[in-house]
Structure formats: structure tokens, C-alpha cells
Design a protein that fits this description.
There is one protein chain. The chain is built from three helices and ten strands, in the order ββββββαββββαα. By secondary structure, the chain is of the alpha+beta class. It has two domains: 8-44, no CATH class; 49-200, Nucleoside Triphosphate Pyrophosphohydrolase (Alpha-Beta Complex). Strands 1, 2, 3, 4, 5, 6, 7, 8, 9 and 10 form a ten-stranded mixed β-sheet that branches. A hairpin with a 4-residue loop joins β3 (41-58) and β4.
Length: 203
């Protein structure tokens, strides 16, 4: 079975909303695997853009820095819409993902990253969201980490805590961590933890 030629045509892009985020209504058509073209489709696209997430990990104490904050996306799904997550933020114009990782680690968790390791790039929910994540692991010293952080002018209210890997993994297993990005990061760490401890334990 040969590969079909994949193509698409966008005929219209209409701004629907622009506030804290932006939404566009897109009219398009695309080729079909069975041959020919789809009918004209209308889809709403929620623009989030390029974003970065960082799992701060201390290989010396085998500990992870987690943040907790109110999340509007969880409001109608759980009674407690404060989620346990990892450091994350949007890439601003002129910034590289590496720069965002260092900046957000300081702003959201008071962490200075000593070594930055790229884990992966992935789309979060591409059926409707224009968002692509660059995920990192940041090697940190967690001994002085903790407290409340975030930018006041962005209304951020972020509680920072340090937990051992085993405790964090337990949170993943019991559902206390129920956001996709930290779940992906912790699963990666579980596969690479011993290597990181051997490589960075004395640094």
C-alpha cells in the first residue's frame, strides 16, 4: 500500500477572540487517505504557541521540585483545581527555549538551573490547541528551595515544594499528579534517574 500525497488548503482565517489567549476560526480542506479531498471544514484553533516545561531535579538528594497553582482548565472537573505541576512558561519573541527554561525556573520556583537537558518536543492537544512543548530536565540544588513564588503583575501564586523521587512517583500513581506534562517528565526521569545520579551527583 503506497503512501498517499498529503496536502491541505486554508481558505479563511477569522479572528474570534483575543484576550489572555487568542482563538481563530479556520476554514480548510485536506487530502484524504482514501483519495480525493475532504469537504470544507471549519475548526476553531486555540493559540498557545511555543512553550517550555522544566522538571527541576536534584540528583544529590534524589529530589524533585514541584509547583502547585490554581488552574482554570481543571475548574469544572475537580473540586480542588490547584494542580501539582512542574515549571513551565511561554516562549516570548526573541527568546530561545533554553532561555525560557532558566527564566521560568527562577520566576516560578526560585531554582537556578546548573545543567539543562532536553527531553523531548511534543504537541499537547493538537485537535484544537496550537501549542508545542519543549520539555527539559534541569539539574538543580534543591537544598534552599521552597516557599511561594510567581510574578505579581501576572497574578501568579505558586507554592513550591521539594519531594523525593519515590514520593513524587507515589503522587503519580495515586493520581495526585494528574497533569500530562509532569507525568511525561516523571516517566522520563524514572528511565534516566540512575544515569543522572551517576553523572551529576558530585556536581
Amino acid at each position: 500500500m503506497g503512501d498517499s500525497i498529503k496536502s491541505f488548503e486554508v481558505s479563511e482565517e477569522t479572528p474570534v477572540y483575543e484576550g489572555f489567549f487568542k482563538m481563530t476560526r479556520v476554514r480548510l480542506r485536506h487530502t484524504l487517505f482514501r483519495g480525493g479531498w475532504s469537504r470544507d471544514l471549519i475548526r476553531e484553533l486555540f493559540h498557545r504557541g511555543a512553550c517550555v516545561a522544566v522538571l527541576p531535579y536534584d540528583p544529590v538528594s534524589d529530589a524533585i521540585v514541584l509547583i502547585e497553582q490554581f488552574r482554570i482548565g481543571a475548574l469544572y472537573f475537580k473540586a480542588d483545581p490547584w494542580l501539582l505541576e512542574i515549571v513551565a512558561g511561554a516562549v516570548e519573541e526573541g527568546e530561545s527555549p533554553d532561555q525560557v527554561a532558566h527564566r521560568e525556573a527562577l520566576e516560578e520556583a526560585g531554582c537556578e538551573i546548573k545543567h539543562l537537558l532536553k527531553i523531548s518536543e511534543f504537541f499537547t492537544s493538537p485537535g484544537a490547541f496550537g501549542e508545542k512543548i519543549t520539555l527539559f530536565c534541569g539539574i538543580v540544588d534543591s537544598s534552599l528551595v521552597g516557599g511561594v513564588y510567581g510574578l505579581v503583575d501576572e497574578d501568579e501564586d505558586i507554592r513550591v515544594q521539594v519531594v523525593g523521587f519515590d514520593e513524587a512517583w507515589g503522587m503519580l500513581e495515586n493520581g495526585s499528579i494528574d497533569s500530562a506534562i509532569p507525568m511525561i517528565a516523571l516517566q522520563w526521569l524514572a528511565m534516566n534517574r540512575e544515569r543522572l545520579r551517576a553523572e551529576f551527583n558530585g556536581d
